[in-house]
Amino acid sequence: MEIKKLNLSVVVLAIDHNPTILHPSFLTSEGIVPKDWELAEPPLCTPPFSVVKFKNGISFTVESRKFQVVQSPAPPVLENSEIPKLAIRYVEKLPFVRYTAVGINIGVAIKNSNPEDALITKFLRAKNCSVNDLKLKSVSLRFQYPLGNCRLNLSCEPGTFNGGSLKGILVNGNYHTDCPGDNPLLEAKENILKFSDRCKHFEGTVLQKLF
Length: 211
Known about the structure:
Order of helices and strands: EHEEEEHEHHEEEHH
Number of strands: 9
Helix content: 25-40%
């Protein structure tokens, strides 16, 4: 099974994020990112939405209820990504924000010359989905698994990657954990620190056992 690791992200939901704070000067002056990181493009900083992208493939975005750090492409060893450290540094600088949940997201592509048939064969009984002239051609699937206080939302669908030159099954995992307690900053940090465990679970269980 040939797997292409596409992207990683850490998402922190909150009631009151402030997008206007996000700016390259804020990220460097507060020690969130190194000063020698180069911008990939001019930053976009507005009241409803801000984004800062760096040439190394890491980007920060903030909306009123969502902050995220994305790495694309993902590194060869997922758990070696810097993004959980960056996310923790960011939320630590804003301790009075009411953080409500953390999401750890992993996107990969499984190379397959006929991903439509592969998904149908793997997960469905095609004869139960085809009637008379209705012949099932393709399917996109969503699964939800409880994992203790976490919820794994898993999606898979046929698609292309590598600039559209390769076909495969696009698999995206979202490990969602709420922060319901009285210390949302601490809970958010603890959930972000589970990043390595989530990556190992995704590769060792989701990809190896389900696919």
